Amino acid sequence: MKLVYVWIENYDQLIKQQGFNFGSEYIFTYDQKKKILYKEKNPIYIQNFFKLEGKANSIKQVTAIVGRNGAGKTTLLQFLRYASSDLFKFKDSVYFEILMDSNGDLYMYQNLMPEVSTDFVSLKLNRKKRFTLSSVGYLSTVLDRRQYERLQREKNMSTNYLLKTEHNFESEKVKRDLNFIQSIELSKSQLMDKIPIPSAVEVRPVELYELDSEVIESFTYEEKIAQGMLLGYLKKKKANETISSDELLLVNKFLDYAIRSEKRPLEKLDGIQEIELPKKPHFSLEHYITSFKRIKQFIKYIQKYTDKGYFHIDYYRNVMVIDKHILMKSFISKYMNFTKGQYSGVYFHWANLSTGEETMLDIFARIFNSISRNEKSAPIMMMIIDELENNLHPQWQKGILKELISFFSEFYPNLQIQLVITSHSPFLLSDLPGYSTILLNKKDGAIIHNEQNEIIKSTFAGNIHTILKDSFFLEDGLMGEFAKEKVNALYREIITVDRNQKMEVDEISKMIQIIGEPVIRVKLQQLLDEHLQLNLHDEISQLKQKIAKLEAQQGGQFDD
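Structure (tokenized):
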């Protein structure tokens, strides 16, 4: 079932007495005094609006939540996540929902609300039934201080959550990307022409802050990898405790064993048995030796494939380059196996992708690796994406919604998706009809929703400047504040400058020439020309007055 309307009486004192339509064929209105819910046909609703020609109709509904920073977009998203995926999170929140099945029948779920009167609901759902009707996917590439806990029926793909739950975020990210890339290559997907495909991955040792910089400089690439993995292992073991000098000594002993052709077994090296280690479970010398031997095998694996020419080490840049997808995947699997996925010793980085390109690839890869192509967890999935356009160039912002719709239609033809996004991009809004848009604002510290705002009906294929001004609550025009200040100062200079101050006049003329808005540029130039002409007339008048005064003084000896 898809969510078509929600009335929030009180959510954590943040949203109070607000109703939200999500862009269905009906418009719902709740009368608080009478406690009656009304329904009317949406006169401009278009059936299957989000179906692409020749594609499966996977996207059933798309809703964009927009508004200025601090208007409550994230708060509403949090409500939707909890309300659709966790049975216990919302026990104290007061709200009701209207949901619609594939036949168009309507259902109501009430949470601590007084009885709501309506004559069009087929069934009122209990709590347990409500939470079996949908699941939630949550994706955000934003890295902030918010913590995203695991919810019962949610597939959390946010950066915050993945950093918190994955032992090695970088390697898992590259592995996700590779899984997705291989899938679209095998299926010869049209997405290959739309999504950046990296040609090589770079593997870089972690920074060794615990060691002297001169010592680090003397290390080979392989030694730095080994050292980084060893310290990563120790840090994982020690948690927040300081690594002791004895443990660093153990690491250096290992380097003799792993790198510098030491033939004796690690446990037989001079002085190793005298090293004092913490007397705690899993801190014994035997535990360290077992893990160190795995790291030695990994270093030998790197050396073997480098000698064969499969891996290329750039010693000057201190990176190893792998330029075949199958070798990248093999390397990451080996790395995860040797470290048991519990600690890090290297950084992974796509060699030829910008931040925006990585973000574009990562959005699709996260979804692909989180949602099974045979997903059957619920009749419909609500996919919530926070700030979809984050890090994307405006050209990609123009195309991201279309590519998402195409992606879901191609890879999940049997899954029904309700897509809810937040955005600051007018390009995304221009892809949506006005009834698919929720405009949020704040008044006296409270989140408010402009339900009756007629302007939003013109978003689809609309003028970007109009959308920016009307849908994102931009005040005082679309010019940057710095530019506005400079133009106002320029105006003041124009009306006060003296035509004889040539340098000042030249500077003013140059400022006018670089103004991009033609109406403002022409008006200011006209103002300058008129002011300089007035200056000239004033000078002529002043000269005539001086001449007349001199003539009077000299008894009329000067002629005109």
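The longest helix spans residues 518-553. The chain has a mean pLDDT of 79.
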